[in-house]
Write a structure and sequence with these properties.
With 364 residues, the protein is an alpha+beta fold. It is built from ten helices and 16 strands.
Length: 364
Amino acid sequence: MQENRSFDNYFGTYPGANGIPMKNGVPTVCNVNPKNKVCVKPYHDRTAVDLGGPHTATDLGAQVDGGKMDNFINRIQGWQLNLYPSAPGCGDQFRPVCTGGQPPDVMGYHTRSDLPNYWSYADNFVLHDRMFAPVSSYSLPTHLYMVSGWSAVCSKSNVVASCRNNIAAFNVILPTGAGKRVPTPNYAWTDLTYLLNKGKVSWKYYVADGTGPYCSNNPVNGSTCITTAQTSAKGTPQLWNVLPYFTTVQSNHQLGNIQTLDHFYADARGGHPPAVSWINPDAATSEHPAARLTTGQTYVTGLINAPMKSRDWASGSRRNWCGVRDGCPRAGEATRTGTEATLVAFAAPGEGGGGTIPAPDSCL
């Protein structure tokens, strides 16, 4: 799952795509900059590091504004940056020195020259320009939806009947200093791996090398966590690594299916990957502002190349790959919202599939 890019930010000017409204190559839409009252049109953002904008459920509702899509610049006023990784310098989008001399980069879009590999996948395979998110919120609810189709808060540990809808959930361990006592996340409802396990379908959930542990006391689900020293520069942060805290994963004794990325490459080389895979990045490779998007593109290309170089691929026993975009508010603006992208491998030979690889979709 890659992080926090809208379709229009990466593919808004892709020929034939339902992207940014244009007339004679010029965008026909704009957002007013509240600082100088200038209405800023979507523009070609040539920088590899963007700052993005806030993307909680409340922020997204305000940005979309009933379909007008006119509050993206306005919403970044007073936003306190909490980026993974941190911005390499200043983080004020209203200061051109922080955005490479450009307007606020929430109005920026990238082109083939910035993302040649991703555009090549779109040329040769498939580009989903009308795939939308199941949840309009930030990273944690999106990752919960990715593995369970729901985001909730549970008032009682491991008791699913105590869980209630919540797309602003904040039951997460954020990168912090060591020795802090925080509640351990508890996701008590059924996740997709329960159904996979029941159907005897193999799966793995890969996280970045160097991930965790997040707690020094190894708590059971729902108890208190005493934090370890964490930074956004090492491993997958917990809000992108939710599966270990699902009751069903623990009760099925499948925590061993959660492995670091080196196991993915080994599985690909050995020709024995699971039927279903999830892959979660670290901050540097995530494409989450303020990570370099070129670093993320290189990382994703490596993920795709690994199975293509395996003996299964060479022998014709190929796997189906899906790049599932967790969507974003659209209506034609070149904007960046709190959206994620999912890279999932399905259908191992003998487990319901095979066939060729459709390259990752519009998210990538």
